[in-house]
Design goal:
GO biological process, one term: removal of superoxide radicals
InterPro entries: FAD/NAD-bd_sf (IPR036188), FAD/NAD-binding_dom (IPR023753), Ferredoxin-NADP_redctase_2 (IPR050097), Pyr_nucl-diS_OxRdtase_2_AS (IPR008255), Thioredox_Rdtase (IPR005982)
Strand content: 25-35%
CATH topology of the largest domain: FAD/NAD(P)-binding domain
CATH superfamily of the largest domain: FAD/NAD(P)-binding domain
Number of helices: 7
Structural class: alpha/beta
Family: Belongs to the class-II pyridine nucleotide-disulfide oxidoreductase family.
Enzyme class: oxidoreductase
Shape: elongated
Helix content: 10-25%
EC number: 1.8.1.9
Oligomer: single chain
């Protein structure tokens, strides 16, 4: 028999766990499936120093354990490591299936599946993750203030990361694999005006150097095939994110890069009544733990009002 729930939360991380905290306190009896990466991107983040309430900072995994424990304290039923692999939003009761074949019928659904950073795919990149390799300058740039650093990418995100770091670091190297930036005109102009940002055209990283932390990079010019090395303190990968939204695309609209689109700006509502979206699955601008938590709160409150209007709670 299918399992019937008032509120199904798909995904964890700050958005999913915050939605669970609010939903459980509102007697919505939420059931949360964490997916294969419980805690989301915070699980590969070391020091988190910009989340309010942690004046001494906290490790990303430890913070996610705090979030999880708080959700569980109020009664959230949490299925750790279990993935929702299929949904059907065609009827008034929304259906979902786990990878093991369990069928869930939900009166409301909060999507909190997040997004995953794209990486270069280097062994040295994995080895030095959180030791000078990062996908978020706003999160980690502070730790490398006063050092020379680099950004990889040629779009708006890479330009924004480079400009942000230019305020903290004496020199920022921007590695662009093409001979032009894909960034918008205004961002290109800002990069040109930034005196301490040096753009390296047709340049790719072959290896990130260092043992206990990043010490430099080995580069290749993809036009001349010339190799070079550069001493650096950090490498910020800014080649994009992939929202984890594939299972919803049949039912919900997305933008050209796969981010879910809210039906009413300023809310978490989608075009399907009773289905709400939070966190990085819909946010390609801010992508911070604090903003994800905020939209998790919004989704739970929107779901609560929906369930009350439907006479379910």
């Amino acid at each position: 028999m299918p399992k019937t729930v008032k509120c199904l939360i798909i995904g964890s991380g700050p958005a999913g766990y915050t939605a669970a905290i609010y939903a459980s306190r509102a007697n919505m009896e939420p059931v949360l499936y964490t997916g294969k990466e419980p805690g989301g991107q915070l699980m590969i983040t070391t020091d988190v120093e910009n989340f309010p309430g942690y004046p001494k900072g906290i490790m990303g995994p430890e913070m996610m354990e705090d979030f999880r424990n708080q959700a569980a304290r109020f009664g959230t039923e949490i299925h750790t490591g279990v993935m929702i692999e299929k949904v059907d939003f065609s009827g008034p009761v929304h259906k979902a299936w786990t990878e093991g074949g369990e069928e869930i019928h939900a009166h409301s659904v909060v999507i909190a599946t997040g997004a995953s950073a794209k990486w270069l795919g280097l062994d040295s990149e994995k080895r030095l993750m959180n030791k000078g390799v990062s996908a978020c300058a706003v999160c980690d740039g502070f730790f490398f203030r006063g050092q020379e650093v680099s950004v990889v990418g040629g779009g708006d995100t890479a330009a924004e990361e480079a400009l942000y770091l230019s305020k903290l670091c004496p020199k920022v190297h921007l590695f662009v694999r093409r001979d032009e930036l894909r960034a918008s005109k205004i961002m290109q102009e800002r990069i040109e005006k930034a005196e301490n940002v040096e753009v390296h055209w047709n340049t790719e990283i072959e290896e990130i150097l260092g043992d206990e932390g990043v010490t430099g990079v080995r580069l290749i010019n993809n036009k001349t095939k010339e190799n070079s090395e550069l001493s650096l303190g950090a490498v910020f990968i800014a080649i994009g994110h992939k929202p984890n939204t594939d299972i919803f695309k049949e039912w919900l609209p997305t933008d050209e890069t796969g981010y879910l689109i809210v039906d009413q700006p300023g809310t978490s509502k989608t075009k399907i009544p009773g289905v709400f979206v939070s966190g990085d699955a819909a946010d390609k601008v801010y992508r911070q733990a604090i903003t994800a938590a905020g939209t998790g709160c919004m989704a739970a409150l929107d779901a609560e009002r929906y369930l009350a209007e439907e006479g379910i709670i």
